[in-house]
Amino acid sequence: MEEEKVDETTPIVNNQGPSYLFSGKEPIRERQSKQLQCWICAGILISFFIALIIAVCFSFYGDDPKIIPESQNNKPLYSDRDSTFKTEFFTLFPMIDEAAANWSILEPTDEEIKAALDAGKKALGDKEMIEEIISTPILNSPTYRHQRAVSTTSIARNAGKRGYVEDHATRYLAKKHNFQKSHKHSNIGIGSFTNLITHDKIDCELNPYYRTYNGVCNNKKNVHWGSAYIPFRRGLVADYCDAVSSPRCAKDGSELPSARDVSVTIHRPSYFTDKHFTVMLAVWGQFLDHDITATALNQGQDGAPIDCCASQIKHPECFTVPLAKGDPYFDDYNVTCMNFLRSVPAPTNRLGPREQLNQATGFIDGSVVYGSTEEKVKQLRSFKDGKLEMYTTPDNRTLLPVSRDPNDGCNEAAENAKGRYCFDSGDARANENLHLTTLHLLFARHHNYLAEGLAKVNPHWNDEKLFQEARKILGAQMQHITYNEFLSVIIGKDASEKMEILSTPGGSIDTYDDNLEPSIANEFAASAFRFAHTLLPGLMKFTKEYDQSEESIALHNMLFNPYSLYNEGGFDTAIRSALNTSLEKSDPYFTKELTEKLFVHDASPVLCGLDLVSLNIQRGRDHGLRAYPDWRKRCHLSSVNTWEEMEKVVDPQSFKRIHEIYKSPQDVDLYTGGLAEFPVKGGIIGPTLTCIIGDQFIRMKKGDSFWYERTQGNQKFTSGQKEQIFDTSLASIICRNSDKVEFAQRYVMKNIGDDNPLMSCKEIDTFDFEPWREHGKTTKISIDDHETNVKVIKH
């Protein structure tokens, strides 16, 4: 009930009837005088208590923009009518993660915990026995390539064994105590309890100059925050069907509609080109995504792929997508099952609901170029002049080091016979598509360009110093490009400014907050940041020069096909393709290249592809991501708990089909609902995805002690060095490190136009190494096998 409004015209006393009706012995005027005094005293007391309440509220909310008073919780902070956020919306960030409930009703005894862990170990042994005999997909078939594309490292596989034991131990206890989830009353599962293992103490360097490769020790109070090989963070606790680990089901406990049926019904093909932006926007999004997220998937023995559809033996981690009779594509191939394996259960060192494992660091640090482990970094380094190892072609061009693994899901015998191989990089997904491989090559070349430039101004620096300084600059430039070219398009410049994530050249405010966890959120990795898949067109333009006639190539023929980079001009042609091809609009619709032909190659004997949309929806259910209405509520957006409410906030055609296939609004997947929303003003995605993505990027900036704009610590850049980073654009890196690209638009994620003209690379590439010159240093050089001291003179 709303509180009655009071203003200066409201009477202090509202007497019911004339004064002469009041009885008593006191004269009327005296009684009225005393009454007035009482009201004044009461007013003073009320004012005092109101002031006290305001002071208390301010102490809770005034200094902390992350919290909004409960009285505002039900007020939507976004206007769907004009697609704008209210000012209060931005005070939500960074949002406070929902705390898991306590599982006090199932507090087990030590004997029960031992029995549960024994049951978990037995389940692991049974799984590994199945993996010894289960079928493997055909080499280089779409399902084989898919599992290779999301490669799981040996570290993750070993960690997954512990996670699997914990998962099944929790199931054992839930069954023993007859714990059952109430689908009528709650989407929330059980909480966690019982620490099983204590982390070994890690001694962090007090004031380091450089990041660790795996992200450990970025935060001295919480040394694992943002590091590789930890569970994803959750904004909302998981919604598993059994409250422990089985994939999300419908609100009433029944099965959700098949992810493929959702894809066919709602995310059908429709072709609306967005003339404002280029494919480079989506390519950068994927490159960036691989820098900060790498979900580990279950695999067979020694990392072998598993065929869940062909094998008669069922692997316990298979979660296949059923294909209905009459499917417009798969019926032609007479298949009724799409292969899908669940993500590895992350070890959490406790018993409780299942979590998933992120193999990448949660920081924008260039790990996509270098790797997230010391072993991988060493494998990629040349250990000479601070540079990365490269493959040199006969015509003296540099390419990424090659991978000669015939089972990597990319290498093909016919190409290998020509001496052409797929490539190795800091991330195993580098060969997934030609544009992505090109960015990997671009930044590997860029690292070597930085190392070479630093060596010229500091000839006394050794290999290690050159490597670390080049790595530090490259990571900073990736941060700058992401927040100032990419995010300002995705969520809009206005939202970026109000979230305070745009760069502030010359700024003196250090935004680092060591109480803010930057680790990647599960909902971000498994759903929200996959929005860019809708942007990809079915055909990519290819031209060798800007003024030449266009040729096109189907998107599916660019997957696992990096061999054109061996050709003279191949690198430049691929770059120009990403700069000259317009995006599709951000909407719920997808090209058939992604929903029917994923990971198919025309030369492959298996022409039946996969559906990326189905895989994305299935992944969200696998991870227990809460339904779309829960995320609207989380972001303080208007309710979509009824069909009437949902109809107001999503695309009309999509709403019609959502209503048709889902039994209840409470069943709608986050991925589907988020994509169906109208874009926010100034951005290209809707308010729910903006909320989830914005929150994550705030955390990655303010929770990173090595953020490039920092003003404190050994890791900070000087003002002159920052100036060079602030002047960085993706166009400048392309101009510097391509073979013969001579012209580019200033902002390559946007199409050429009056406000974004085509420019000469000589105007764009202006990076200066002078701010990195160390003055007055002494070094040792070798002259005729004799060492001599040389003074570096200040110019």
Automatic annotation (TrEMBL):
Record-linked SUPFAM superfamilies: Heme-dependent peroxidases
Binding site for heme b: 533
GO biological process: cellular process involved in reproduction in multicellular organism; response to oxidative stress
Key words of the record: Disulfide bond, Heme, Iron, Membrane, Metal-binding, Oxidoreductase, Peroxidase, Secreted, Signal, Transmembrane, Transmembrane helix
One example GO MF annotation: peroxidase activity
Subcellular location: Secreted
InterPro entries the record matches: Haem_peroxidase_animal, Haem_peroxidase_sf, Haem_peroxidase_sf_animal
CDD domains assigned to the protein according to its UniProt record, in alphabetical order: peroxinectin_like (cd09823)
Top-rank taxon, per record: Eukaryota
Cellular component terms (Gene Ontology): extracellular region
Residue intervals passing through the bilayer: 38-61
Annotated PANTHER family: CARDINAL, OXIDASE/PEROXIDASE
Protein name: Uncharacterized protein
